[in-house]
Amino acid sequence: MDNSFRAWSECAADLVAVAAGRRPADLVILGGQLANVHTREILRWDVAIAAGRFAYVGPDASHCIGPKTEVLRWSGYVIPGLCDGHMHVESGMLTPAEFARAVIPHGTTTMFTDPHEIANVMGLPGVKLMHDEGLMQPVNIFTQMPSCAPSAPGLETTGYEISAEDVAEAMQWPGIIGLGEMMNFPGVVNGDAQMLAEMAATARAGKTIGGHYASPDLGPAFHAYAAGGPADDHEGTCEADAVMRVRQGMRSMMRLGSAWYDVETQITAITEKGLDPRNFILCTDDCHSGTLVQDGHMNRVVRHAIACGCDPLVALQMATINTATHFGLERELGSIAPGRRADVIFTSDLRELPIQRVIARGKTVALAGKITTECPHIAWPAEARNTVHMGAKKSAAEFAIPAPNGAVDVAKVRVIGVVENQAPTQALEA
Ligand SMILES: [Zn+2]
After folding, report:
1. Sheet harboring 232-233: ordered strands across?
2. Domain-by-domain residue ranges, the chain?
3. What is the 131 CA–ligand 1 centroid distance (Å)?
């Protein structure tokens, strides 16, 4: 993290002085239509920023302007920077720095990332590399410690097996925000000691346990999973899934990734059933780099939620304050309010969400779709490169499957059935 960036408690005196008009702000935004995600109001309010945080948010910031204050006039909307509640950098085939560089122009200023793909290959040292590079970025990247490598024990050959001790150790690292998706839901339901120990270590550290209940069974198995501690879930695919999760006190994370389209089928829990939207969060989970370049990131998800009939301010809450609240960061980010990290987007349209300017921690990081900041890399070590080991050279013959019972042209084989735009697959024969 940028070392010049101080905690609210350490710069409160400066923020007080700016808001009171005794000291000029670093940056002032005048004339905007501010989206207040605490109250779901649009307010003709100004914003004054100092030390990378909001100092004054109110009807007239002219008293915060000094000779060196940068003044931006913007008559369009001023909205909080967007948060991705659960995602994997590796799905973009990128490092954290390059992922940040791709999504900052789309208005993403906070990401909750679970580096479980690198954990599968390199274990805890790999997680630490991703975490370290994430902390260096000009936007907020919080790491969820992977819980399940392998995700299906006995069915996979991974390079590393995460232990409960690994989880307990990672919980001590600064910036670790919680436990990544608890994918071994049968383990939780069956009382598996290691899965329970991982969740206990997370709970003892006062952090959030991420869920992943990829089953349509909403009977006792789901209730048992909820009793184990996962606080959110992004595997729901229909309205009943979303309703059941929030009724259990979990947050329903609705996902729009490159291949997962789980918002439209669940958002009716809000738009038609009228459930309290503060318990819903938008996320991407997995975005290929092509999606990031061509379609966007969290701006794409918010736009889609609105197109599905969601009120724009509700959709915005689901990608800002709801996410921050869920991870215990409501006083730190996710809204335009005093003391929070000054993460702001300028947009001229609340439905289409063109991203005209992105400010992170009080500095402009993207303008008209172009990044204007550096996204620093760590020196990736040799052991993190060339990690795909194929053994002997492969020949075409090795991929031939002999047909049973002497059949020549036709054989019945097991195939994986794709469910269009969803994560679950089917075991079929063809
Ligand atoms: Zn995930």
Report:
1. 232-233, 251-255, 280-283
2. 1-79+334-368, 82-333
3. 16
